[in-house]
Amino acid sequence: MRILIANDDGVFSPGLQALAAFAAEFGEVRVVAPDVEQSSMGQAITSSRPLSYRPTRIGKFDGYRVNGTPSDCVALGIHNWEKVDAVLSGINQGYNLGNATWHSGTLAAAKQAALFGIKGISMSSMPFEKLEEYESLKPMALQVLQALLSKETTSLLFNVNLPVSPRGISWTRQSVRHYDGKVVPMKDPYGRPVYWFTAVPIESVEPGTDRFAIGENRVSVTPLSIDITDDRCLAECQRRYPFNGSASEA
Ligand code: MN
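^ thats the input. predicted complex w/ manganese (II) ion below
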């Protein structure tokens, strides 16, 4: 099995090496990651300038660094390595729960794989500074990867979050909560206005969701779909406002 490893924290993240080491238990591994941090870039792609793909030793692994986004890395990685079976992204330095999935570059790399018809798995945990610290996640990370990389698991996109010293694994839903999206104004050292865009959840945690599982100190595994169409609304709108006979098309 050929497993491509990407992330959004960049080639120097210990989480990247930890994930490559976990993946090596299941097959051949190649790392393709951004040359600098690309967190919160979401699904952005670079379309206005060329991209470079430079060989870089990443810990024990052969890798490449790309001057682009996580999605660029996956596209170039798949282009330059035939028959990739799965793309693993992470391990991100920080959880990607609920609404974070909209902004996360880590999840976007996995999504990019799914868009190419290849299995994409995003993994995130609390930030660790040293590679050795990821050992505490290894037993359950391997258990999760065993299940998700299996041929019987046909879904293409998964979001995995690993708490420190987890006491179990749960299948979860994405927690979709409204957040305050508050913009906090400050001043830079020259007295010029600068702003922080903060996103703090404002609703309580629902059981069965990714955020709930992490609160219970369990690994959260969420299968995701690429199609975000609101089917209930679509049906209702077609019925209520049959523009150009769209109701008959339904
Ligand atoms: Mn990140």
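The CA atoms of residues 40 and 149 lie 26 Å apart.
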